[in-house]
Every structure is written in structure tokens, then in C-alpha cells.
Amino acid sequence: MQIRLTVLGSRSGHQAATAPAGCDVLVTAPAGTALAAVASGLAAAAGGPDTGGTTVLYAGSRRLDPQRAVLGEPPLVDGAVLHLHVPGPDTAAVPAADGPGTPQLHVVSGPDAGGVHLLHPGSVRIGRSADADVPLDDPDVSRLHCAVTVLADGRVTVADLGSTNGTTLDGADVGAASVPLAPGALLRIGESTLRLAPAGGERPLAVVPDLEGHLGLPDASGGGTGTRAAGDTGPGDAARPGHSGAPGAAPGADGGTGTGPGTGGTRPGPGAGAPEPGTGPQAPAAAGPKRPFPAPSRNAGSAPDPTPGPGVAGSAPLGAAAAEAYPAGPADGGARPPRRRGGIGAWARKWVRGDEDDPGRPADPGTPAQAAPDEDDPAALLLAALGPTGRLWSRGAGHPRFMEVGLGAGSRVTFPECGSLGVAGPRARLTGVARSVIAQLAALHSPARLEIVLLAADRARPLAERRRDWGWLGWLPHVRPAHGQDCRLLLAYDRDQAAARTAELTRRLEDGPLGTGWAAADPAALRQAAAGYEGPRTLVVLDGDPDSAALRDLTGRLASHGAAAGIHLLVLAQTPAATAASPVATTYESACAATPAFRDCGRIALLSGDVATAVRGFAVSGGRPVAAGPTAVADGVSAAWAERFARALAPLRADGVQPGPGAPRPAAANLPAASRLLDELGLARATPASLMARWAEATEQGQGVGGLAEVVLGSGRRGPVGAELVHDGPHLLVQGPAGSGRTELLRSIAASLAAAARPDRLGLLLLDGAGGERGDGLLPCTELPHVSAHLVACDPLRMREFAQALGAELKRRHELLDGVPFTEWHARRELSDRMVSPRRPAPGELNGDIDSPRTGTLRLRAAATRTEPAAGPTPLPRLVVLVDDFDALVAPALGSPGRPAAGSLVRILEGVAREGTRLGVHLVVASARPERTADTEAARLATLRVELDAPDQPGPGRGRLLYADGRAVPFQAGRVTGRIPRTATLRPTVVPVEWERMGDPPARRPVRELGNGPTDLALLASALDRASHLVSAIPVPFPQAP
Question: Which of 170, 128, 129, 174 is nearest to 148 (CA)?
Fold first, then answer.
């Protein structure tokens, strides 16, 4: 078990006033380990003082008992924050005195969106100043902008505090006099929009701890459609046509698919100060059971919704006014009376109207309506993560807003339509918008449907700065390598890591419908492939120049072609804001120079204005931005908010979420350097019970065809690689030079066949064609109970006897089948066995008694075990003949002791190749010299082929499985004669997390084997022998008794 924790401690012991010192650590320990085992390690990692051996740890304000608190169980789950020696803020629940009706103020849009604030009785001041009870990082907000007051009777009012840019409530000006603030009403100050919501909301989903640091979350996407469950309501559902406004009201005809605001986590009340480092904003959790409630409309029913047109009053910021939810004119907006006192400048107003693109166009006299924030606003997403609630991971591939994000109110982008999105602007605002986009995708799409990759290898910016911008991303479960990538997290902070991540992505494209020529595919083929893709999506966050010419080229091609394999890029370019000094064309070229892949994006968004709080989207055609979209206030979230959000998602795991209907998981991994067969068979601990379960399943699946013969070769990019000889075969040819692992592969094939079928349903015949001159050959496999005979081709007499016995077996089968194919013969036999004959009457029934006579014997002991003899093997079990060094039989060396009888063996094996399909006999042959065996029947009739590579790189056992339809699957052969690996020590360890190294391949210590211990094959053979005795399975005799 491995979990990541953050330990915050004070370097001055119990003096809580000092600056906290913290450290992210990775704890490795067996499941069920007590906190006491790692407490000292956690204290040492955080740099805490020496307190004489006593380490006190808190989870919030709760002191943890080191003997009773267990690693992996709440609260000690992945992403948890612990405090050393002093309690921290209580982030578990709202104080009981607040009650379930404590209202909340949500910052739903703007440059500092996502905040969730509890409103305690009294006055709450909102402003840009640090002295404000609700501070907002919005340059258009005054230091103390407005005050929200909670009255004694629970009503809420708002009043302006003489702000520069004014305050509006649902479009109406708010002055110094207090006005009622109803739940659901939109309060606009500066560029920010706030919504009042009472405590409560959605009930949290039931999560199940797995005792290894994770919490199981049920699939909330409704089978991939993202539909809302009955009774759930979303923001804006009440006071709309088709909504009753009562809790649990069914969705109306508006087609809303969201869920209502939920609660979870905590946040200090007004005046509590800024959140602690590394924790971010803290959202409240209502005490007691949570109640779903419908959020009212934008005006909470107090007045009709504003109608687009010049009659809309208010002092909302100019950028927000240009964001059009209900178009009333041209798509890029129109003129507006300049009510703002000192806003972002005259150029911004001209740019919003679109006059920069067409100076001669007359201004539109109509004023566009302000767009309402989306129901999945940052505050709602934070509450969904902290709950968690049904809104979390609710969008599947069938959802109408799948992979859709908002850049601001009224400005939305759909990644499957545009392919890739580029965002340019000043660094501070750019990262805020990027965090908002990533958070929307991570909150609404589960890790099974979306993975996130970070490429931040731009050496023009210091590593510490890049870590500060993207450190929060490592907590998201979406950056875990779920598709076999050779790293610990999908992060790239240097050139080598970026090269590895892009190589994994290009392999995805090569495995897709475009094949290896994906880079030269025409636009029509790209659109067709992108439209037909149904697998998981990948969001690649490219921040700046990737630092090499090859990576610049690859990232540009991924931006333009990646949608064919579900790969979408979010390209970030640091540029000045689009202003009169830097027009759109100039800003676009600056962005392309800063991040070359920016030019290959299908959609771009430019941050504009004197303080870069407005965003405007453009389509790209012919290498230049065209078709400008609406201008909106850019939604951004802080780094602290993003880390709190990511930590809330860190322990969550979606149970039962599949990538898509029939969509294979994308392959992005290299083949492993070594593979263990028992691991690929799922038998890391081979026990008789597990083998009997496999046999029972194989018997059920093989009904009607006389049983199956399943072969597992080893490990591939997507898991175990193998074939089934009945349906894919019937014969298998293995070719590879000396030292390629050919003999070891045959041993693995024999072991996998034995693990898949009972000894009375499948027999193995082993033949070493080299006569023991090349090592032990197949001799270790004779321990398997399925092996009926083993021949070493060095004694002509035994070779002829083996050939005669095999020929007699083929003749016997031919006579029993009498022209009926093997599978049909077994199907008829199983049907006749299922027919029930009439029961013979009991002696009492012959005398006319209906009821059986009673007995006075009291049974005190269990019935005796049945001692009747086993039925024995079926008259026609399947046989598999495994031949090593077949080329040595076809062309024996001069002076070889088996040379006189080699011809008879080759002739009977060719007979097996010809007649084996209808007789139920399969042939698996291996050859080191393919040119010698190319003309044999075994080579010509083999429908399955394995080509092993030369043993130089990377090692023996690397090869490809070729199917009859032309498919080629690379694999690393599983080893079965290796000895039991030495188990690593189970002592718990605590090591600091180096986020910049998480993109490196995980350090793998060489596996050491027990020098005198049994091999995996011996362990498997022992378990197979015990299992065969338990099921009374008698091995297939060879030769058959006369």
C-alpha cells in the first residue's frame, strides 16, 4: 500500500504562531499498519522538533491515536493533510452552532472564482483588501466593495460600500441602502459574480474505503450518458417552466442535466484569515443529514429575468457585458453605454465591440445581455469533490456536454469539435484560466474516461516556478498511469520526461485507425477517425516551449492530429494581454513564437484588457485567427483552490466505470523487460482452490466443443497475450534463433495449458527433438500431471515406439469418431448425458406404498465420504503434442543417435498436422532453423505463429504472435522456471515526494531469486497435482491400454 500525505509542522515546537514547515511524503506500508509505525518518520520528514520521542499528529483539530489510527483508513487516505504537534483548522464539518440553515456565498465566476464562504450572523465585508472578510483577487473590485449582512431572523441583505465600479443584484444597482439578497440571486461586483445559496444541497454519495488509502465511488454517469437521477435538481431549475421548485422535482423540458449545489468540507468563517498553505479554500459541510434543494432562478423569482436589449440596467464590468448568453445582435457583441468609472480603458470597450477587426463597421446600438454563470461553476465543482456528490464524474461519452469547458460566462469550448485549445495571456491570469479548465474536466469526467498529461519542460522558466504552478496537478487521480506508461505520474518537467510522454501518445496514434502514417493523413481521414473514436480521452497540458526541435514538431502534430486517438491539447502561451499596444494579430504571433504548437490549435482564446480579465475566443483558419466569438470575463481559480480541489479527488476511485462501450483501452506502454507467467495467469499464489475454479470455468466455456486449449505466452502492452487453440488454431509454430527463449516459451505454453484444463480433459505429449544435446529441454515439464509421455529423440527404439503409439492413438480416434468431427462428437455426447432416464421404483413402491417407510435411527455422524471409483478420463480428451527443436528432427545432424528413426517421427507429426483438427489433437512445434522446416506440413498448416527476436536486445523472450487474419501482437514471454522471488521487506517507509521526478520510470530493483527454492513450475505442478486429486481427475493414459 502506498499513500501520499502532507505533514505540516512548526519548526519551533508548539509555538503555533511561527510559519509552518511542510513536506509531501510517500508512505509505503502493508495494509492495516498503525500510524505509530510511521509517526517518527512523518515528524522527521516535516522537520519538526525533537520532543523526546513523543509525536503528536492531528487531522484538522482531531488528535490521532497512533495505535488506533490505521494507515489507509479515513482520515489517513491519499491526499490527507496532517499537522504536527499543533491542531489545524477543522475541515471535517461545520460547527454545530451554525445549524443546517447557515447560508453560503459562492463565487461562481470571475478571476477568483470557486470560493465557498459561510455567512455567519452579522456583517460580512467583501473586497480586494486582505482585511475583507471575503477577499477577492479581482482588480475591478474595490478594497472594501460591499457588505452582506445576515439578520437575526435569517434574512440576508447587501449594501454597497462606496465602491468605484458599483454593485448590481440581478442587474439592478445596489446603493448604500441595504436591499434583500434572496437565495439564488446573482451579485456582481467588479468582474466577479457571487451567488447566495443556503446550506444543504445534494446528499453526498456513499463511499467505501478499500483500507489501502482509497475511497470507492459508485459510477455517477448513468452508464455513460450523464443523465440526472430522478429527484435531483440543478441550479436554475426552480422558477423555470416545468419545475415545481420543490425538492425532488423532476427535471422539466429545459433539458438540464446538472445537479444541485452540494456541500462538503469546511471553510473558516469571515475573519478567520487566509487558508493555510497547501490546503486551499475550505468548503463547508452541513451538520446532520443533507437536503437537496432546487436553486432559484437568476432573480430568485423576485423579478423577471433581464431581457436582452438596451433596457438592462446595471454596472457590471464591460467584459461580462460582452459575454452573450442570449444573442441580440452580431456574435461579437455591440456597443454599450460606458457607465463604469475608470474601467479597463477605452480600447477594451472598442475591442469588445469588435471594432478592431473592422474599424469601419458601425457600432451596434443594442446592449447585449449578461450571461448567467454555468450550473457547473467552480464553486459547485469544489463542493461536488468535497462531498462527493452525484455531480462528480457525471459526464460519459453519451453526455451532450462531454469534454466541454467554459472559459467564462457565455464562452464555451468543446474539445472533440476543436481538437485542441490554445490560451494566451499574462502568466498570472493564464495559469488561473488553465486551472479552471483542467478542474472542470477532472470534476466532470472520471479517470477511466479521461487522463491528464502535463508537459512543462520549458527551461526558460525556473523549475521551482513550474513546480509552484503545477504542483497541485500531481494529486489528481487522472494523472496516474492507468494504461501502462513507464512512469509514476503523467508529468514531464524535463526534456527526457517530455520525450517519453510524447512517445507514449504517438504510439496511441500508431495503434489507431490511421496507423503509422498518421502524420501524413489528410483532413478528411482525420475527421473520420476523430468522429469514430469511442475510447478514453487524454488532455495534454502543454505549458511553454517543449525545449527541443523534435518535441516542437511532435507536439504540433499532436495538436492537429491527436483527436483521431482521443488526444486533445491545452496549449498555454505567455504573452502580453491583447490591448491597443498588442492587437490580436500581434498577440497571436507572439503566442506562436512562445509555444509553437499554438499555431496548430483549432481554437484559441486570448486574454485581453489592461488587467487581462477578459477572454475572447477565435477559430483558426489558414494560420490566422478568424470568426471571433463572444467576449466574456475569464474564469480563473487560485492555486490554493486548485490544490484543495485536487486533494479532495486524490483518494477517490470510480467503481465499475468502463472506458466506453466496446472501446479498447489505449496502449501507451512499452513491453516489460521481464515477465512472470504465474502473474500473467493470475496465479501469483498457485493454490488448488484457484486452479479448480479455473478448471470449472474452462469446463463451462468448453461445453459443446470438447473443451478448450488456452495458451498464455506472456505479457503484452495491454495485459496477457495468448491464444486459444480450438478457435484460433489448431496448431502453433514457434520460430526463433538460439538463445531467443524458445524452449522456455514451450515450457510456459505447457504450464498455461495445464492451468486451464483438468488432467482428464487435456493430455500433453512432450518431444525433445535435439536428443538432449541442448540442455534439459522439456524435462522440467514432466512434473505436470497432464504430461502422459516425454520422449528425448536419442534412442531410435523408443522413438519408433513413440511414433507407433501416436499413430495408434490417431487410428483409435478415427474409428471412434467414424467421420464425425471432434467438436460435433462431443456436442452429441454431452446432449445424451444430459438426458434423464426413468427412475427405478423403490421396493416399497412395488408393494403399493406411496410414502417411504420411516426409520427410527438417529444419525449422529455425517454421511460417509463416497468411495465409488472415479469415472476416469473421457474416451476422447484433447491432446497437445509439444515438440522442441523440430528442425533437428527434420534435418538431423550426421552422427546423431536418433537419426535412423527421425523420419518416422516427422511423418507421424505431419499426420497430426493434417488430421489433428477433426481428431482433437493439436501440434505446437518450435524451430531454430525456419528454413529447414518451411516445407513441412506442420509449418504450412500452422495458423498461429510466434516469431522470437534475437537475444541481444532487450533480452530473451521478446517476440510477436501472428494470427491467421494478419494481426501481430508483441509480447514478452512469461518465465516459468524461475525460482520464487525474494519478497521485499514489509517495514513501513516514509520518503519525501519529489514531484519533478514523478515522470521518471519507477526505480526497479533487480528481482532476486531464492537460490535453493522451488521454481514457479514446480510450485504450479504441486498445486495441479493436489487439485487433480481433489476432483478425482485421472490423467490421460498414453499409449492407450489395448
Answer: 174
